[in-house]
Amino acid sequence: MEKVIDLRSDTVTKPTPAMRCAMAEAEVGDDVYGEDPTVNRLEALVAERLGKEAALFVPSGTMGNLISILSHCGRGDEMLLGDQAHIFHYEQGGSAAVGGVHPRILPNCPDGTIDLHQLASSIRGDDEHFPVTRLIALENTHNRCGGRVLPLAYIDAVGALAHARGLKLHIDGARLWNAAVALGESPARLVAAADSVSVCFSKGLAAPVGSAVAGSREWIRRARRMRKQVGGGMRQAGVLAAAAIVALEQMVDRLAEDHAHAQRLAHGLANIDGIRLDPATVETNIVYFDVVKPGWDAHKLSAALAAAGVRMNATAPNRLRAVTHYEITAADIDRTLATIEAVLRA
């Protein structure tokens, strides 16, 4: 049977043999009591990699972002974030539903940034008519803006703005590892200006489950309480943390291969009649493109590709997203391009 090429997301990756072995042999304890040595090792490793005082293992990135917001904001407080942010689109409004935190949505630029002047003018102080702005949230890399990498100077400027105005900065770094590889910088440098950061192990790093948040020791104590409140306290979680450790130690540097495959895909797509995209906008492992051939839309093309053994998601009436990962080879990219061309020509 011919391989199914699954480009729907990097979340479809399966754990590597080294991860499965580490999970089977993991030393465990009760993490709610702080007694799981493998979880403790993972959290220390994450804190070191991110240049923060402490870190906390959580089941998912959505939970990581939620407890980060809850640890910075009280009920009725406000956070500023982009209108294309994952927190805004794909996390069920948890900050408002669970924490009563008011999201103020500002337009994302095509590169994933938010205009600094608009950020500054949107910060509200202690006026009885308004919620008090407490937090700015950025996303790096930025999913809905095409996997774009936020410039270092921009992140530093947002951090300086936040701290000058008495706010905190949180970075949703689900794919921060991709950003670090793309820029050739350490992950710690990318989040030096941030008060908190969430990172994911189950996307490009291919662990089966898990994320982490990092910040100061005092802030992590609050985050730990919030994790317990939303049901994220885990017991013998070392079997999961073991895979995340392997992910950090073995799977980060190879993300450059995924970026190269995304470039190969983008340049190939740009040469297919009926497809529109600018390869220069592809910076990491995410490729968005539009189908512009008359009589076709994204859902029709997605269904036709799936029937031919290539999976990718429609994200808008005429837009599709493809995400490269460690299970995708250069040959898979070439077959994907040939399949798209054949389907549109039929």
Automatic annotation (TrEMBL):
SUPFAM superfamilies: PLP-dependent transferases
Coiled-coil spans in chain: none
Positions carrying N6-(pyridoxal phosphate)lysine: 203
Biological source species: Caldilinea aerophila
Gene Ontology biological-process annotations: glycine biosynthetic process; L-threonine catabolic process
Pfam families, per database record: Beta_elim_lyase (PF01212)
Protein name according to UniProt: Low-specificity L-threonine aldolase
Cofactors that this protein relies on: pyridoxal 5'-phosphate
GO molecular function: L-allo-threonine aldolase activity
Keyword list, A-Z: Lyase, Pyridoxal phosphate
Superkingdom assignment: Bacteria
Signal peptide region: none
Enzyme class per UniProt: lyase
Enzyme Commission number(s) from the entry: 4.1.2.48
Residue span, Aromatic amino acid beta-eliminating lyase/threonine aldolase domain: 6-290
Homology family: Belongs to the threonine aldolase family.
GO terms under cellular component: cytosol
